[in-house]
Design brief:
Elements: H1 8-12, H2 22-34, H3 38-41, H4 45-53, E1 116-117, E2 124-128, E3 146-147, E4 149-151, E5 167-172, E6 178-179, E7 188-189, E8 191-192, E9 198-201, E10 204-209, E11 214-220, E12 224-231, E13 237-242, E14 251-260, E15 265-273, E16 279-287, E17 293-299, E18 313-316, E19 319-323, E20 326-333, E21 340-349, H5 360-364, H6 373-388, E22 391-394, H7 397-410, E23 415-416, E24 423-425, E25 448-450, E26 464-465, E27 467-468, H8 469-472, H9 476-483, H10 485-499, E28 515-517, E29 520-521, H11 531-539, H12 542-549, H13 554-573, H14 582-587, E30 599-600, H15 612-634, H16 639-647, E31 655-656, E32 665-666, E33 668-669, E34 675-676, E35 680-681, E36 687-689, H17 718-732, H18 739-752, E37 771-772, E38 775-776, H19 795-809, H20 825-835, E39 837-838, E40 846-849, E41 856-862, E42 865-872, E43 880-886, E44 889-890, E45 895-897, H21 898-902, E46 905-912, H22 938-942
Parallel strand pairs: 42-46
Antiparallel strand pairs: 1-2, 2-4, 3-8, 5-13, 6-7, 9-10, 10-11, 11-12, 12-21, 13-20, 14-15, 14-19, 15-16, 16-21, 17-20, 18-19, 22-41, 23-26, 24-25, 27-28, 28-29, 30-36, 31-32, 33-34, 35-36, 37-38, 39-40, 40-45, 41-42, 43-44, 43-46
Helix pairs in contact: 2-4, 7-20, 9-10, 10-12, 11-15, 13-15, 15-16, 17-18
InterPro entries: 6-hairpin_glycosidase_sf, GH-type_carb-bd, GH92_a_mannosidase_put, GH92_N, Glyco_hydro_92, PNGase
Domain Glycosyl hydrolase family: 361-913
Protein name: Alpha-1,2-mannosidase
Length: 945
């Protein structure tokens, strides 16, 4: 049952949970002062204007650009770029990269990294503070003032930690500062630093290490990290290459060094286990200065150096291998007489070290052959300029900084996994490792394969990995579908390579990816969210175009599409090492069973199987995607199309439909099919108890959220959801009420029911940030909900809520992403929001209209075509659409189609400070009905009432 209009004095007058953004504090205080209900407040033009004016932390901020020490108050990032005395890149060559601020998201919950990389690069060369913990998942936390070096692989915005392979740290005799407490690797050399001596932009990072007075600079090509260190005069200066450095779940399983004196280079590998097990990184490191001396050392897991080689370790000549030991190399340079600038290049490969530039890391090193640091940096900048130029916006300068930083972050996932020759390493296993190193599924096989989609033995596409699909399918891949469709096609061919993995006996043991990196399926999160991305490239034709460009024959192209369909159908019918789906297939839902005793907020679910309600809702969406893909390849007359079209209605099996007090919501169901009201977390104790239904409380039936936040998770059938949900509302409230008004009332209540700060600190887990009522902008399940007012003819509310969600979540500071960025998911939401539209259903080819931020935005959609969004009168106050035209003709629809965007043209908006409650409200203006098939379990649900 709806909870009713909330009294502002009771709970709305508290700042949003885990937020202190000035914009929303002012918004909340205004609401309290006027004691208005949500329907008036949320859309009061002057109040929204105040909210927008404070957007992104632009009003009331300290105007002093000097950064304070990391131990002091959180500073505003200095966006100025350190060009140096002899800049490698002219400012005019940084047309768009000048707006990129990689520090956004490095504070609080964003979990991004500030280092150097290329778009989707294999190498992410970035600084490490040296500590474990939630804040250090990317290796770097802005509030820390220590640094232990620079490692070559990082996760951007993840919620769990791994990677940080091959740490490099420059030192000299000016300090003996060691990090020993709370360190990811004990007993490591460290330095202090100050943010005023640190800067970064796309493809470049620099910092002064105060303890040693060494300037560090980083840049990268796709597969090579390039370092430049300016050592002051000192009696002894070294680069430490540390293969034992580890973060969070990761740990070194095998380390190897070999010194190639003749070629002045270091060879080696680091094998590790952790969140993704059986990771293998091979490398070659070259230096442009002569080496005075090199020595190797062995360390145990506590950072203690062995005097003698431990058991299982061998050292022969210039070669060292440390099985389960943590090896370090100390590379010494001659700085006794003068300052010395050292450049070092480190090429990665997950295949092998290789030799003579013919394979593995040796081949990948050819990316930077004959290039010095400045040239590599120029190349990296040029790559970023090319990608960022696919969307050119004009308007507010501060908004441009946030926009291009968001676009930059959107391009950090889906990373290159194959070498230049197309080879890559795969791992055939199921779920990943736990922190104690014990695996619930053994490694079966880790073959070296080639990115060969048509099976002719020759590499043809770029193989990608790092797929956080539960997060990214919502907006990262839809953005790729518009601005980089060829890359997205290669991503889908990479999916197929996962599905067709074989064991040593030749049996197919793979599955489509769920959450993968470094060739591993980790099993993190839930659902089958490769399916919307596959459906996208099949229904929009981008895979077909890419395969034609690759020279595939018609027969080969059809074969690949059929293999993709077969892979989706297999995963949609069969249990795997990661997911059990058969119960859902049979019953239309996954059941839950309460444990004996209590669970708690952070560690133990009260259910034997958690997230079951979310599983069922998201499986139904996946089924719809599979049906659309089948239709595109085989047509809608084949039985498998009808099978998955019907299954896409299974979301109805989770809806507790009836007239009782606690019905009218999506809930978990037990093994007998009865709905479960318990399982939510008591905010006073943090224990998972509760008998009566509380949709506003964190509940283990849902993924990282609660009943409110998953109540609109039917992206593929919003019209069906409206009919289903409001039929219940009509019966229990007002039979004469219009269903559109009832659905809008649900949305109003959702956006106004704030957490009660007096109830306790355990109401939500850490994922729930950036609140607008129950809406959580800081986590993914809610991202589409602000756009749902369009479906009931109230688009002015979508415009207001989208603007307010921006206010509470995004700004140009280290805290400028209010939740885990999850490989650009938070950021790509902002990109779409700024353009003025967003895909509620990721693969449907429909984009719901929101509110644009810029005077103009030119989107390069390929084939020499541009789709342009222009505005008259847009400002931080003027967020409401007054009228619109598409290619010069009146436009009142609250959605665009993918074909309209890709055809090129101009969408023009006239904006104002007050809502126009006539625009976009016609019967034909609402987004179309996407629902298909029939609900086959209706009688079973009715029997549970």
């Amino acid at each position: 049952m709806l909870l009713g209009k909330i009294g502002l004095a009771e709970s709305f007058c508290q700042p949003p949970y885990s937020l202190s953004l000035l914009a929303h504090e002012v918004l909340a205080k205004e609401m309290c002062a006027f004691k208005l209900n949500m329907e008036f407040i949320m859309f009061k033009p002057t109040l929204v204007a105040i909210s927008i004016a404070l957007s992104l932390g632009l009003v009331g901020c300290n105007s002093d650009n000097d950064n304070v020490d990391a131990s002091g108050k959180q500073p505003i990032v200095n966006p100025d770029i350190d060009m140096g005395a002899n800049p490698a890149i002219a400012f005019e060559d940084m047309d768009l990269t000048r707006y990129v601020n990689p520090f956004i998201g490095t504070g609080e919950l964003g979990n991004t990294y500030p280092g150097a990389t290329t778009p989707h690069g294999m190498v992410q060369l970035s600084p490490n503070n040296g500590s474990n913990g939630w804040e250090y998942i990317s290796g770097y936390f802005y509030k820390d003032a220590r640094m232990v070096g620079f490692s070559h692989t990082h996760l951007s915005g993840a919620g769990a930690g791994d990677l940080n392979d091959i740490l490099v740290m420059p030192i000299n005799t000016r300090s003996d500062y060691m990090l020993n407490e709370g360190s990811a690797s004990l007993n490591v050399e460290a330095s202090t630093f100050q943010h005023k001596n640190e800067s970064a932009t796309a493809g470049y990072y620099t910092v002064l290490l105060d303890s040693y007075d060494i300037k560090a600079e980083l840049t990268a090509s796709d597969r090579v990290g390039v370092h430049r260190y300016t050592f002051p005069q000192d009696e002894k200066s070294e680069l430490i290459v540390n293969l034992g450095f580890k973060l969070n779940w990761d740990y070194t399983a095998d380390s190897y060094f070999k010194w190639d004196k003749e070629n002045n280079r270091l060879l080696g590998h680091r094998f590790s286990d952790g969140w993704a097990p059986s990771q293998k990184e091979f490398f070659i490191m070259e230096f442009d200065q002569p080496i005075k001396n090199i020595r190797f050392a062995y360390y145990d897991k506590d950072g203690k150096e062995y005097v003698d080689a431990p058991a299982g370790t061998t050292e022969i000549g210039g070669e060292i291998r440390g099985k389960h030991q943590y090896a370090r190399a100390y590379v010494e340079f001659d700085t006794a007489q003068s300052e010395l600038v050292v450049e070092a290049k480190l090429a990665l490969s997950n295949v092998e070290i290789g030799e003579n530039g013919e394979s593995g890391a040796s081949l990948n090193m050819t990316e930077v052959a004959g290039k010095d640091f400045d040239q590599v940096r120029k190349d990296a900048t040029a790559k970023w300029e090319k990608e960022l130029a696919k969307i050119k916006v004009e308007g507010d300068h501060e908004y441009k900084q946030t926009f291009y930083s968001a676009l930059y972050h959107s391009l950090l996932g889906q990373t290159i996994h194959s070498d230049l020759d197309g080879r890559y390493r795969a791992v055939t296993r199921g779920r990943g490792a736990y922190p104690n190193g014990e695996f619930d599924n053994p490694i079966l096989h880790d073959p070296v394969l080639i990115a060969d989609a048509n099976n002719d033995g020759v590499g043809d596409y770029t193989r990608y990995d790092t797929f956080s699909l539960w997060d990214t399918y919502r907006s990262v891949q839809p953005l790729s579908s518009i601005i980089e469709p060829d890359r997205l096609a290669d991503v889908v061919l990479s999916f197929l390579s996962f599905a067709e993995l074989k064991d040593e006996s030749g049996n197919v043991v793979g599955r489509l990816p769920e959450w993968t990196f470094k060739g591993n399926e980790t099993g993190m999160m839930m659902g089958m969210h490769s399916t919307p991305i596959i459906a996208d490239v099949l229904t929009k034709g981008s895979l077909e175009k890419r395969m034609i460009d690759l020279g595939f024959s018609e027969r080969e192209r059809q074969d690949i599409k059929e293999r993709l369909i077969d892979a989706m159908i297999k995963d949609g019918r069969e249990d795997s090492a990661v997911d059990s789906i058969k119960e859902y297939v049979t019953k239309g839902y996954k059941s839950a069973k309460l444990r004996e005793g209590e669970g708690d907020l952070w560690a133990h679910s009260p259910f034997e199987s958690s997230w079951t309600a979310s599983y069922s809702l998201e499986y139904a969406y996946n089924d719809w995607c599979i049906a659309q893909a089948i239709k595109a390849v085989r047509g809608d007359k084949v039985p498998e199309y009808q099978e998955f079209a019907d299954r896409s209605n299974n979301w109805k099996a989770q809806f507790d439909f009836g007239g009782a007090k606690y019905q009218g919501w999506f809930k978990a169901r037990d093994t007998e099919g009865k709905f479960i009201d318990a399982g939510w977390v008591d905010p006073k104790t943090g224990k998972a108890v509760g008998k009566d239904w509380r949709p506003d409380m964190f509940n283990y039936a849902f993924t990282e959220s609660n009943g409110w936040q998953y109540s609109f998770s039917v992206q593929h059938d919003i019209h069906g959801l409206i009919n289903h949900m409001t039929k219940f509302d009509q019966e229990v409230q007002d039979p004469k009420a219009q269903r559109g008004d009832l659905f809008a009332a649900r949305l109003d209540e959702y956006f106004s029911t704030y957490p009660d700060r007096n109830a306790g600190d355990n109401q939500y887990p850490i994922f729930n940030t950036g609140n607008l009522g129950q809406h959580v902008q800081g986590n993914e399940p809610d991202h589409h909900v602000p756009y749902l007012y369009n479906y009931v003819g109230q688009p002015w509310k979508t415009q207001a809520v989208v603007a307010s969600a921006t206010n509470v979540c995004y700004n140009n500071t280290p805290d400028g992403i209010c939740g885990n960025d999850d490989f650009g998911t938070m950021s790509s939401w902002f990109v779409f929001r700024a353009l003025g539209f967003y895909p509620v259903s990721a693969s449907a080819g429909i984009y719901e209209i929101g509110t644009p931020m810029f005077e103009s935005a030119n989107i390069d959609v390929g084939n020499g075509k541009t789709f342009t969004v222009t505005t008259d009168g847009v400002s931080r106050d003027a967020i409401f659409i007054q009228s619109a035209t598409l290619n010069g003709k009146a436009f009142t629809r609250t959605y665009l189609t993918h074909d309209e965007i890709m055809a090129g043209g101009t969408l023009h908006f006239v904006m104002g400070e007050k809502p126009n409650k006539e625009w976009g409200t016609g019967k034909d203006d609402v987004p179309p009905n996407l629902g298909v098939g029939s609900f086959l379990h209706a009688n079973e649900v009715q029997h549970t009432q």
